[in-house]
Specification:
By secondary structure, the protein is an alpha/beta fold. 36% of the residues lie in helices and 11% in strands. A hairpin with a 5-residue loop joins strand 7 and strand 8.
Length: 492
């Protein structure tokens, strides 16, 4: 009889996306010519865990200084300086300290963390251990999205491999320092990507955000000082120690955030996938040079620059540098590192409805403006795209959004409102035309199912693309005109 024990999935069969002439990579550079480094022997042979061993000989304050010197900012969306965040952990607090890795990657069209986990799981484990040593913690939790079943198996095996080599658990590398790494699966709630909701879930409660202050650095997991960082942020720590904080800071844009960043490119592009680029490069490099331009030689209509939660940019803003300050200056945010290209045939009213549906579905219901506002936004947008709108419905949608922004405990409600209102600001005519008598929505404007696509329709894998054969639901096929796929998210 066959065993029912879950088996680790086969290693990825394709290499990460090509990077193009955009400077050196930091994370993918570790792979060399290899497709992955899932096995600990391969990772150690490539220099893995050497920076952990070095960190074991350093003081926490010295590690923080090195990370501060790198000028790295959090890669999860908020972009808070990582070294500064570590320095907030009070060393005079007698309670235990914890590191929590936020691997609850659920933002539509964001799939970079999944690929990092599947290709470089030991780099994440090493990064978690370095962070724990830095703040004086003895436990590191990796809270991974519940739907990421296969990556969870890869990560759990990596932890056990490290344990067998004396790199996790007691007396790590003979240093006398103990640290456990625990992989914890979530239950499918997007809201748990918000750090206080994640900690509530990890504490065994309903995953809902809480009032700040107190911040997690003071009272987080088990009401103890807790450092919460994103997968990419933690995975970068071994590379920063290896090359030196100053060398890392020399990459990217010193003023606004140094280094490289993984960008998940999707939408109507010829070569969707994950690309690592230096921060500060124009979006045009990502969309046209790396992504191969818009499908079918159609025109670019708009860009969502940082995941579905960020306000949209127009096609003439394609030269905006991809860094934190430049994005804010353009009226949007760098966000989760997801860039979605939208072609000229896409109906922005229908896109607004799809985005609003996602946030309505994922609202935890704790805050009335978010719970009721997302529902009303979906209801009114449904009337609009169903050609049953009342004369003032477009203004009503905008007004609902204005009343949500700034009134919720977490950014979920704000994210929907700012995104939808930005579509109305930029493409009002796409909404108003539904109010015209006799208007028939064009078939090409259908967005289809927002769930992630597979490559069943693709006969040949395009070089430079992370295809579904590698990453299952996190990858994309080229879409028909007017259809926009969102990565690895289902919307009911």
């Amino acid at each position: 009889m066959a065993s029912s024990t879950p088996q680790r999935p086969a290693a990825p069969k394709t290499k990460p996306g090509a990077h193009g002439p955009v400077g050196d990579t930091v994370l993918w550079q570790a792979l060399g010519e290899r497709e992955h480094l899932q096995g600990i022997d391969d990772y150690v042979a490539a220099g893995g865990y050497e920076q952990l061993k070095r960190a074991l000989t350093m003081q926490g304050s010295d590690l923080i200084d090195e990370i501060k010197a790198s000028n790295i900012r959090g890669r999860g969306g908020a972009g808070f300086p990582t070294g500064l965040k570590m320095s907030f952990i009070p060393q005079d607090n007698p309670k235990p300290k914890y590191v929590v890795c936020n691997a609850d990657e659920s933002e539509p069209c964001t799939f970079k963390d999944r690929e990092l986990i599947e290709r470089l799981p030991h780099m994440l484990v090493e990064g978690c251990l370095i962070a724990a040593k830095t703040i004086g913690a003895n436990h590191a939790f990796i809270y991974i999205r519940g739907e990421y079943y296969e990556p969870t198996l890869v990560l759990m095996e990596a932890v056990e491999q490290a344990r067998a080599q004396g790199l996790v658990g007691t007396n790590i590398a003979g240093s006398g320092w103990d640290c456990e790494v625990i992989v914890h699966r979530g239950a499918g709630a997007y809201i748990c990507g918000e750090e206080t909701a994640l900690l509530s879930s990890l504490n065994g409660y309903r995953g809902q955000p809480t009032v700040k202050p107190p911040f997690p650095a003071v009272s987080g997991l088990y009401e103890s000082p807790t450092l919460v960082n994103n997968v990419e942020t933690l995975a970068t720590l071994p590379r920063i120690l290896g090359m030196g904080g100053a060398a890392y800071a020399a990459m990217g844009v010193e003023r606004t955030g140094a280094g490289t960043r993984m960008m998940s490119l999707s939408g109507h592009v010829n070569r969707p996938g994950n690309y690592e680029m230096e921060i500060g490069k124009p979006m045009r490099v990502l969309v046209e040079e790396l992504g191969g331009g818009i499908l079918g030689n159609r025109k670019l209509k708009a860009i969502i620059p940082g995941g579905s939660s960020t306000p949209i940019l127009m096609a003439d803003q394609l030269d905006t540098p991809m860094d934190y300050d430049s994005m804010v200056g353009a009226g949007t945010m760098f966000g989760s590192g997801s860039v979605i290209a939208i072609d000229e045939d896409t109906c922005m009213a229908q896109l607004a409805l799809r985005v609003a549906e996602f946030y309505r579905h994922e609202s935890c219901g704790k805050c009335t403006p978010c719970r009721e506002g997302t529902k009303w936004t979906v209801d009114v947008l449904t009337r609009i795209v169903g050609c049953e709108a009342r004369p003032d419905d477009v203004n009503l949608v905008y007004s609902i959004g204005e009343r949500i922004i700034g009134t919720c405990l977490c950014p979920l409600g704000d994210s929907m409102a700012m995104a939808v209102n930005s579509y109305i600001d930029a493409f009002r005519s796409d909404f108003d035309r539904y109010l015209e008598p006799g208007f028939v929505p064009p078939v090409s404007s259908s967005l289809g199912d927002i769930a992630a696509r597979t490559v069943a329709a693709a006969s040949v894998a395009t070089p430079g693309v992370t295809w579904a054969g590698t990453l299952s639901r996190s990858s994309f096929t080229p879409l028909a005109s007017g259809q926009l796929a969102a990565g690895d998210e289902e919307v009911s």
